[in-house]
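Homework-ish question, so no full write-ups if that breaks the rules, but can someone show me the predicted structure for this set?
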Amino acid sequence: MPRRENISMSVIRRLPRYYRFLTHLKDKGVTRISSTELSVKLGLTASQIRQDLNCFGGFGQQGYGYIVDQLCDEIGNILGLSSRYKTILIGAGNLGRAIASHMQFEDEGFDLIGIFDSSPSKTGTRINGHIVIDTTELENFCEKEKPVMAILCIPREGVQSIIERLYGMGVRNFWNFSHYDISMRYEDTVVENVHLNDSLMTLCYRISNPNDK
Amino acid sequence: MPRRENISMSVIRRLPRYYRFLTHLKDKGVTRISSTELSVKLGLTASQIRQDLNCFGGFGQQGYGYIVDQLCDEIGNILGLSSRYKTILIGAGNLGRAIASHMQFEDEGFDLIGIFDSSPSKTGTRINGHIVIDTTELENFCEKEKPVMAILCIPREGVQSIIERLYGMGVRNFWNFSHYDISMRYEDTVVENVHLNDSLMTLCYRISNPNDK
DNA sequence: TCTATTGTGTTAAATATATAACTATTATCT
DNA sequence: AGATAATAGTTATATATTTAACACAATAGA
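A: Not a homework solution, just the prediction itself:
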């Protein structure tokens, strides 16, 4: 039975890692694993793993460990991976196209139902089965299809206005690849930023300053 | 004068954000800014910003604030953005191609000097001015060019062996897009993971559990 | 030039997170 | 079936991180 009282972001961000590794174990045919074994493989402490899992309930058996298959399913459920969230992608540039083609959205609860771009050189072209639609069609499309999630792969300048249009059409969740930091005045939205440049700068810092952890 | 004694990862990960925003301000012609103003724009507390900056020295003036231009440069220096790190990219699939075309590596201290792939359908093709080289040529290439950084855009299975080959050739820094969690036995390496699927799963969790923060 | 105000740098307190210690349950072995 | 070992769940401690408070320097205005 889940407890779920104010789970911290630190815990949530480790769940996909557990899920990924457990899936891998399952594929390898491993049926049971202890928190200690997990901790070694993942480079964490056993304490942390046990505590993370216990935020959601006791999935293990004392003296035995965790059943890989079962734990994997449990975490999948916690993450909500069996949900179906209608998703659109805005921006069919290099990155947008790669995201659309590369990601297995379905496995993570999302269904890509439309790709948009405002450049005439892109609209009408085909990406992974989807025909790129002109961004002027956004409102019409949303009214009909009611997407709940938008992936933003557009330049900084365009973001604020697109967000407002999408919010107006009921979209509340954003996976943001733009350089723009979406600071939502709205309370009911979820934003996950992926700032590749920030990641690269962090890497640059760490290379340049090998002393720091 | 920098102090730099064991800067925490939390601080380091905020630096690119500051840098990005200050660059933006600079472009807009803003010349000075206070920690309070910054905190409002970035959605952080002024205390945090002041403390972050003071890890590296006092860049502001009491009663006045920070000079945008100067602070921006300082943070750029701290991040080491003027470094030149020879970089190669492994894996010319959807994601690899997008990363190679989309990123402004030069602005972040990296020079992309080669792209590799093991599939004959990719080798010889051109990506953003680079001809894709067969991965069998990796050792020859490294011996000559001495890259220090590798971007990994290959499937999980290939990662461990590629890392070992690269490590053998002196590459110590990795920007990893694969689903594989690089757990380095080696002490002198820097790994920055970008797990897009994890990010998406986190998003899925947050949509499915709107109560949590 | 003096004074009030602003706003940094710094120290202290509060909160969050991670680790360690402990308890109790289950499995395994004899 | 009973004893022992293994290991989850839980509580307590330690550490890290964030926020708040404050003292002091510089600015700007009268």
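Now go work out the reasoning yourself. Hint: Residues 8, 10-11, 44-45, 47-48, 51, 61-64 of chain A lie near DNA strand C (CB under 10 Å from a C1').
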